Amino acid sequence: MLLLIDNYDSFVHNLARYFVELGCEAHVVRNDAVTVAEVRELAPSAIVISPGPCTPREAGVSVSLIRELGPSIPMLGVCLGHQAIAAALGGQIIRADEPVHGRTSWVRHDERRLFARLPNPL
Question: 2-93 in CATH: which number?
Fold first, then answer.
């Protein structure tokens, strides 16, 4: 089962639908309606941390989940979820001068590990 942490953003339901279309069992819970212990009991095969309108500090259980279960359960963060992963691992989150939505850009990478067999740039 794939667990999606809902950080109060409607896009989480789009994500859940996409995962179901790919054959996953997806379960959505709000970031303030579950504890780390409860997630541990659910034993998800992976966790997706959703977007949301706040900062990682205000994202309920998200950062605690990442810190405590990240080493043992694969996790993906989308937007706020990605920021929460960075914050949980000691990264600094800063406000952009100008918000950018939907712009595409090339990503250059080191062709190692996660990027080993991917085109460069992406």
Answer: 3.40.50.880
Residue found by looking up tokens 């600094």 in the block? 92
Could you read off the pLDDT tens digit of each residue along the chain, which spans 122 residues?
A: 999 999 999 999 999 999 999 999 999 999 999 999 999 999 999 999 999 999 999 999 999 999 999 999 999 999 999 999 999 999 999 988 988 878 899 999 999 998 999 999 99
For 69, phi then psi, to 5°, come to -110, -15
Q: Please give the DSSP secondary-structure letter assigned to residue 22.
A: T
The dihedral through the CA atoms of 107, 110, 115, 120 has a sign that is: positive
CA dist 71 and 121 (Å) reads: 29
